[in-house]
Amino acid sequence: MPEAPLQSSSVVALRGTPLVHPVRNPGMPFDASWLDGLRVNQSAVERRTATLGTRRSVKKEAQAAWLLKAITCIDLTTLNGDDTEGRVRRLCAKARQPVRTDLLEALGIAPQGITTGAVCVYHRFVAAAVDALHGSGIPVAAVSTGFPAGLIPHPLKLKEIEASVADGAQEIDIVVTREYVLTGNWQALYDEVRDFRAACGPAHLKAILATGDIRTLSNVARASMVCMMAGADFIKTSTGKEGVNATLDVSLVMVRMIREYQERAGVLIGFKPAGGVSTAKSVLSYQILMKEELGRAWLEPELFRIGASSLLADIERQLEHYVSGRYSAFNRHPVA
């Protein structure tokens, strides 16, 4: 038998009080003393993350509500060499209506009440995405600064940011120079991200650390702190193009740096895992991590995003299973 429809009160309870978008992170002067003693116990991190899927169980109606919330935090992404304007416009249509109307009606949700958190594209497609999303309230995020390697000249990185903002991007996902992290040149990393922050103007800055490239959890911790000092509004795990992308281990380290920065600077910083978060089961683990480590506010798109492309299709499959009791083929839930 199919499960009973979601009651609206369940979704309201999950949403909580609507949030005003956090104040922009103004950054602060570079202070190397904040990095002193930043060491990470990898064994302790692994023990902590190993319990995330076992200490809490989210089932049935609660799971459906959490997955609907996850959809609102997705940066629906296409970053392929064969992207076209047509593909980007289809992606934007999916962002406007990420779940089939019949499923939302069965769940007791108004169709216009669920959209993705943003659409993320290369600079070339920013203007098309802005046009396709006009009136929806869904922001366009542009990857920038020579994504994914970040090895173009610094002045060109700044011009790319400025061009995307001019085309209407409200969020800029920058990549840092990994060499600065690997050689411990924290002042250079700070200066670079500070320049990116200035070039963004009103657009929010999401700093991609490329955690699979910078090798150690201690490097992840220090790079996270430096990027926040320099004014990053979000810190993000990966480009999705590294050999290893988002993991719960690096995410735990990053969110604890967010917590420390909040305690020291009084500023709320967002978090974005990206790359490899492709199943409903995996996204629940990240939601639990955010709730336990940072609190309820970090389940909202103002402070939590998931960089993903195929994740949405799996969430829609799980919601259909909740409604009908049957799993459908994955290809019946195309992203675009």
TrEMBL record:
Entry coiled-coil feature ranges: none
Species the sequence originates in: Paraburkholderia aromaticivorans
Gene3D superfamilies noted in UniProt: Aldolase class I
Listed EC numbers: 4.1.2.4
GO biological process, one term: deoxyribonucleotide catabolic process
Keywords recorded for this protein, A-Z: Lyase, Schiff base
PANTHER family: DEOXYRIBOSE-PHOSPHATE ALDOLASE
Keyword Metal-binding found: no
MF terms in GO: deoxyribose-phosphate aldolase activity
A Pfam family: DeoC
Protein name: Deoxyribose-phosphate aldolase
Entry's family note: Belongs to the DeoC/FbaB aldolase family. DeoC type 2 subfamily.
Catalytic activity: 2-deoxy-D-ribose 5-phosphate = D-glyceraldehyde 3-phosphate + acetaldehyde
Top EC class of this enzyme: lyase
One GO location term (cellular component): cytoplasm
Gene name of this polypeptide: deoC
UniProt pathway annotation: Carbohydrate degradation; 2-deoxy-D-ribose 1-phosphate degradation; D-glyceraldehyde 3-phosphate and acetaldehyde from 2-deoxy-alpha-D-ribose 1-phosphate: step 2/2
